Amino acid sequence: MRANNVAFHAMTVALVALIPAGHARAGGVIECNNCASPRDRALQSGPGLTVIVDFENAQLTAFDVDYDHAQGRWRADATPVPAQIEAAFLRVVESTLPDTGPLHQRMSGAHPDASRP
Fold first, then answer.
1. What is the chain's Cα-based Rg?
2. Which has fewest Cβ within 10 Å: 6, 12, 70, 91?
3. At 96, is the pLDDT very low, low, confident or very high (cuts 50, 70, 90)?
4. From CA 72, how far away is CA 77, in angstroms rounded?
């Protein structure tokens, strides 16, 4: 569990460093291991870029959360995870796991529930 906490904090720092200051809004980073619906978790975060981190399945899923005034509800649109963030995530996850081979070969890049743009 300690390794996951360290990894989560490292990912948070990496994500904050890569988000352009001029475009940053609330959003955030949410840890959700074995998450049934990353989109639903993202909707709880508030507006902005939200990255769902699933250490158990070594998956990152990003959403742009915004309020849809026409429909009167919050919307979470899947967005690609920037390559720098994905690479940093893989390094962090690999450093916390026993040697089982390169994780980047198994990584799909996103939760299967997320649509690809």
1. 14
2. 70
3. confident
4. 16
Residue 36 CB contacts under 8 Å (≥ 6 apart), including other chains:
none
Examine residue 116 and state whether it is found in any structural domain, yes or no. no
**Amino acid identity, position 107:** M
Q: Which domain holds residue 97?
A: 2-105
DSSP state of 66: E
* Three-class DSSP category at 31: strand
What is the per-residue pLDDT across 23-42, written as a single tens digit (0 to 9) for each? 445 578 899 999 899 999 99
Domain count, the chain: 1
Reported pTM: 0.62
Residue 24 CB-half CA count within 13 A: 10
**Tens-digit pLDDT profile for residues 62-92:** 999 999 999 999 999 999 988 888 888 888 8
